[in-house]
Amino acid sequence: MMLPPPAVPGWASPREHVPDTADAAFMAGAALYALDQLVRSAPPWAGAWRQRLALRCAASACRLSGRSEEEAALRDAWHLRKGDEDPGPGGNVFGAFRQLATRAPEIDAAGLALVVEKLGLRWDDAFGDLPEDFDAAVRNGPAAPFAAAAMMRQVTEVAPSAEPLAWWLGDLMLAAKMRWPRPVPLLMSRAFSPAFRAENGRGKRLKPGEEGFSRALMIGAAEAAADACRLAADIARRAERLQAVSPKLRAKGAGEAIRRLLDDDAVPGTLATKALSRFASRRLFERLTGFDAVQELSGRSSFRLYGL
User: Fold this and answer.
1) What pLDDT does 1 receive?
2) What is the pLDDT of residue 272?
3) Can you give the pLDDT at residue 202?
4) What is the reported pLDDT for 208?
5) Residue pair 209/167 in contact by the 8 Å Cβ criterion
6) How many CB atoms lie under 10 A from the CB of residue 40?
7) Residue 199: predicted pLDDT
8) Which one, 85, 90, 142, 252, has the greatest CB density within 10 A?
9) pTM to 2 decimal places
10) pLDDT confidence of residue 25
11) What is the pLDDT of residue 263?
12) Order of strands, edge to edge, in the sheet holding 267-268?
């Protein structure tokens, strides 16, 4: 049995306005330390955890871009498409954050162009300098949250309309500076937090590069790390239950379904593999739901999606 995921200390989870940047940075450091312990423990359910965080970030990115899709619609767009069919604009935004959760924390020109396209943004020639600047900041830049804030400011100085890309690269920078093998989608999910509101949380939303944004990003990073650790604790409990009931499963190919549940946010109830038919898959997921090892995520009677 694995130890439970670490939790962010209560004092490092800000519940009110934090006016001092040094205090905010101290909170962020403590929260990211707890998250770092979780990342480095590499639990078997880390894939599902990262992808659920990616879904949260994608929903926030859609809101930032003026789109209406929430988490359920984005999940449907991605998981209910046929094969490699285009998941649509919202689904592509989700795809960008899904990719963030699985890649190494580095970027090149081709990779950046693909992310820009998935986020529904227009390429700007000035983006061509970002990969080199990213590498330089990883080698010689400031501490993780400050480096993320600087990278985000640089993106929006080049193209103010490219703020979703700034948040995406902010998480990539955070992971690179923390020396994580893969990023954890975090920061975008807090873009509309009171931490990013001027005038003690009641004013306009702060954008990268604006006065007070770096301090707000420290608070946002602490909040996001605390949320990520709470989500990890919930997923860990379900994963432990899933592994406990797995010996009771008789379906041939059940092991592949379990692996996918541990690796992703959601798995279609119509999953079909070489060893598992769609009919057998449906019965397997119904049984797992009965064991309280997975949850049905769509709320529908058909085209169901299951996850930890």
Assistant:
1) 52
2) 77
3) 65
4) 95
5) no
6) 11
7) 65
8) 90
9) 0.94
10) 86
11) 97
12) 267-268, 305-307, 295-296
Residues in the chain: 308
> Facing residues of 296 across strands?
306
What is the per-residue pLDDT for 93?
A: 98
Which residues in the chain come in under a pLDDT of 50? none
pLDDT of residue 5: 84
DSSP secondary structure of the chain: -PPPPP---GGGS--S----HHHHHHHHHHHHHHHHHHHHH--TTHHHHHHHHHHHHHHHHHHHTT----HHHHHHHHHTS-TT---HHHHHHHHHHHHHTTS-S---HHHHHHHHHHTTPPP-GGGGGHHHHHHHHHHHS--HHHHHHHHHHHHHHH-GGGHHHHHHHHHHHHHHHHT-SS----GGGGTTSGGGBHHHHTSPBP-TTSTTHHHHHHHHHHHHHHHHHHHHHHHHHHHHHHHHHGGG--STTHHHHHHHHHHSS-EETT--BTTB-HHHHHHHHHHHHHTTSSEE-S--SSS-EEE-
**Unique residue bearing structure tokens 């937090």:** 193
β-pair partners for 306: 267, 296
